[in-house]
From TrEMBL:
GO cellular component, one term: nucleus
Xref: InterPro entries: REXO1/3/4-like (IPR047021), RNaseH-like_sf (IPR012337), RNaseH_sf (IPR036397)
Organism: Miscanthus lutarioriparius
Any one GO MF annotation of this record: exonuclease activity
Family statement: Belongs to the REXO1/REXO3 family.
Primary location class: nucleus
Name of the protein this chain belongs to: Exonuclease domain-containing protein
Annotated signal sequence range: none
Family matches, as Gene3D superfamilies: Ribonuclease H-like superfamily/Ribonuclease H
Amino acid sequence: MAKRLAAAEKEVLIEVVRFTQKNGLSGCDGGWKDFLARNDRKFGASLSDPRKRTRDVLLAFVQTFYKDFQKYFGKLVKRHKERSAVQQYMTDFPDEVSPEQKLVQLTAEHPEYRKHYCFPSYQEAKLDILANPLKTITDYRTHITGVSKKDLEGVTSSLVDVQKSLKRMLSKENILIGHSLHRDLCALKIDYSQVIDTAYIFKYANLPTTASPSLKSLCKVREQSIKRLADVRITL
């Protein structure tokens, strides 16, 4: 990961620094502004815009973080490189771009995609498992999840079981399709970037640039709650 960061382009390092700012992350020399104040006697933190700093300064700051953080930063660099490769391929060979590839491109180009991140199964459920949190549930939020106390009676599968089942289905050839998938993947504690996210590829009037339309808004679903299988099929 250290080598990947060291070879990263300036634009990628700017993205990483902004990520640390947004999430309030600090390295051995503190946050971004703390780092500048300590290491730049001329400008200090007064020139804090990452775009106006040299690549060497950006890299030096990123390298002040512990290995666990640098490992994650390395993934951001890898994703940026993959996106660039796909975009270059589509530019060089525009006639060879499939509809599926175009959807992936639209998802990856969305400005919010960088901050977070199977083909249609012909209505066949490949994985339909409920996980028992093994903790006391005070609010099932059935009106949102569609899951009630009765649904979890007798359920013994854990989060780990669901993770193992899903990971067996994920590969370089598979694309996950869904709505606001980063939330699902975060809940599952799984990192997977090959996605088509309907929250990103469709626009909705009068929404701020950082907001995305809900699945109900896009599909005009009128049920009181979204059923988990219906939720999946709608995005397809």
